[in-house]
Specification:
The protein is of the alpha+beta class and 176 residues long. 35% of the residues lie in helices and 28% in strands. The strands form two sheets. Strands 1-2-3-4 form a four-stranded antiparallel β-sheet. A hairpin with a 2-residue loop joins β2 and β3. α1 crosses α3. Pathway: Siderophore biosynthesis; mycobactin biosynthesis. This is Lysine N-acyltransferase MbtK.
């Protein structure tokens, strides 16, 4: 599995993935060129503290994954920080498999496991990675569990999609 930094050339692919019903169900993201630029351009330009990656399996783009320090987005992550009692050096990740043909094959688990290793290698001060998952997305939380994450909290966090009730399960993986 390869993780390459997202470029603007990936924006049409991101828009297609984010517009697919399966991804849109949990990401609920605008897909106009302006919205994609607004939400992913800052990482590319280095003016946002997040790091965005296209995930490739055998050279084929299959998904997206990003990481950031939770406290870099303290205003947006206030509910997660409180629920998780997040240490000041904690990271968080978010991800999706964009290609439907890549689902159901363990790619999500492998993607999370390998990206977790990369996060700990790239961020030696990070003691933990904390991931909130909407409770109604069992495929996501099962992939986290299979990748070595443990569920340690649950509670309300403002949902990305207004059709969700906001009930999240919180997963954590500590640095080995």
């Amino acid at each position: 599995m390869e993780f390459r930094r997202t470029t603007r050339a990936d924006f049409p692919l991101l828009a297609r993935w984010l517009g697919s019903p399966r991804v849109a169900r949990f990401w609920n993201h605008e897909t106009t060129p302006e919205a994609i630029e607004r939400d992913f351009g800052g990482s590319i330009d280095g003016i946002e503290p997040s790091f965005d990656f296209i995930v490739e399996d055998a050279g084929v783009p299959v998904g997206f994954i990003q990481r950031s320090a939770i406290w870099d987005y303290a205003d947006e992550q206030r509910e997660l920080i409180a629920l998780a009692e997040a240490p000041p050096d904690a990271l968080t990740i978010d991800y999706f498999i964009g290609e439907v043909t890549a689902t159901g094959k363990g790619i999500g688990t492998r993607m999370i496991r390998e990206f977790t290793e990369l996060c700990f290698a790239d961020c030696p001060a990070a003691s933990a990675i904390i991931v909130p998952v909407i409770a109604g997305n069992p495929a996501s939380w099962r992939a986290l569990e299979a990748a070595g994450y443990e569920r340690f909290a649950a509670g309300h966090i403002q949902p990305d999609n207004p059709i969700d009730d906001g009930w999240h399960v919180i997963y954590r993986r500590d640095r080995p």
